[in-house]
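Sat 14:20. Reprocessing the chain from the morning session after the first attempt stalled halfway. Input below, unchanged.
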Amino acid sequence: MLILECPYCGVKACETELSPGYEAHLKRFGPGSTDAEFEDYMFARKNPKGVHFERWRHTYGCGKWFLAARDTNTLEVFGTYPAQSSAPPEDLQAKIKAKRPDWKGYK
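Finished this time. Tokens:
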């Protein structure tokens, strides 16, 4: 079972109380973009085996969106942080690097 802590209300909730929003930190393309850029934005998603950054919504709690870093292979959760962040916080990246020395960092 996946348990994530909402960074807004502090509640630790299991995945049944949350809704997935899929990949975090996507670069959005809209009007004025090339067809290839828009196609990549709409359909191309990373599906790594290992560290992944995702969007989640605390559906049956405060209702807010937040971001989480977790390992897709082991389901280990490294941490959560506010959805308005443009990149994972430095302390969270350091925590991931300490547990996964082979991790190449956030790109």
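The beta strands are 3-5, 12-14, 19-23, 51-57, 65-71, 77-82.
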